[in-house]
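Case study 2.
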Amino acid sequence: MAWIYLLLAGLLEVVWACSMKLSDGFSKPVPATITIVTMIGSFALLSLAMRSLPLGTAYTIWTGIGAVGAFVLGIVALGEPVTPLRITAAVLIVSGLVLMKLSAT
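Prediction:
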């Protein structure tokens, strides 16, 4: 169950990162509210996952899901640039996540 909590926490991190961008410095109430609500949910699910997962594993995977998810969402939804260096960085992050998952007991 901890891995499910962690996956959901990571997905909520993607949502809050995107809605934070759309809030324009918290000047738009709807995206700002979505940011705050999903942040709270993400942290709550992360804390549940950390009950049984090691700190380093849980935090690394949570931030990795958020980073790669925000990267992909930025490209797909916000028209951010796709460059070979950015793609390589995302692949390296995903590789690290896979290794972290494989190393978890």
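The chain has a mean pLDDT of 94.
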